[in-house]
Amino acid sequence: MTQSNIPNRCSSAAGSGIKPLRYANGVLQMLDQRLLPTEETWLEYRTYQEVAEAIRSMVVRGAPAIGCAAAFGVWFGARDIETESMDEFMAQLDSICDHLGATRPTAVNLFWALDRMRNFARCHTDRPVFQIKIALEYEALAIAEEDDRLNKSLGRHGQELIADGNRVLTHCNAGALATGGYGTALGVIRAAVAAGKQVAVIADETRPFLQGSRLTAWELQRDNIPVTLICDNMAGYLMSKGEIDCCIVGADRIAANGDVANKIGTYTVAVLAKEHGIPFYVAAPTSTIDLSLSDGSLIPIEERDQREVTHQGEKQLAPAGIMVRNPAFDVTPARLVTAIITENGIAEGNYLVNLSALVGGGR
Ligand code: MRU
Fold first, then answer.
1. Which residues are known catalytic residues?
2. Residues 248-269: pLDDT tens digits?
3. Rounded to an integer, what is the distance from CA 313 to the centroid of its chain?
4. How many angstroms separate the alpha carbon of residue 177 from the centre of ligand 1?
5. What is residue 331's predicted lDDT score, i.e. its pLDDT?
6. Does the domain made of 155-360 have the CATH classification 3.40.50.300?
7. What are phi and psi for residue 320, nearest 5 degrees?
């Protein structure tokens, strides 16, 4: 992995060219999201092991963006396999996918992208190995480009739910930085702005990794979309004062019954929204819907390093040796979710029926 400081400044209202990944000439560049908003540093990746480490260490994060990065990881791994035997090639490809899949457990888009790359190879085993390698590069590019396109479609559906003048609370970062481009929750906001609506965003800072203050605030400010930053524990007060009209968040995995795993703190926002009679929307591509899980209790929840809670950079915020929990995600029960917005339309009510219809419509 090497470092380059290529500028990525292209700010425009409601449709910025912000992307977390750039690919050219066999090299993947990732904007190091750990350093935002104060440093824009692009890192270069050429091997699947490097890509796996970037996902694990959160250089790239956000469910769809993790999937896109992993797809390039599979291509790098395939490129370096030295065999002409199809059986041997497929066996090594499986272990590359397993390595990439062991990085983060909650976002299903990671496993969706790995399965898509692996199945693509499986479907073409009548071809010579070198041809499959070439095709896998195009498949990785297709996954990233499709995600950007799907988010724009998701945004067009979702913006119908936003009224002119709405003040919208979001949690974590479900924006361009978290996807192949444009964003899911922030894609809905961008589409509403593009449709001529005045929208003001309230961004939860999102302890402990601060995706809200570091990333959501950064990308909305670049797009000139009004954004006000709050600490996570201020949301209830603003709701009680009538200062929030609706909430929109992304998702890392949605079970068949509509239960939603998303960044820790999402559940709290959903409970508060219910108490105050405020709509709570989830925006996610159908690749985030996991119909193999009947409900959210089956979604694996990642627990991250204690240091994310006890330290801010090098600064210690808690006594040494304190006991810490750091679950990175929580599950919001479907009953608290007003609607789920996808690229194929909006599901409401009976998610068991309506979500599978949307997934079926998209594949
Ligand atoms: O730990 P992260 O930053 O990868 O978590 C990201 C989130 O929880 C996002 O809300 C989710 O992935 C949706 S991104 C479109």
1. 252
2. 999 999 999 999 999 999 999 9
3. 23
4. 10
5. 98
6. no
7. -60, 140
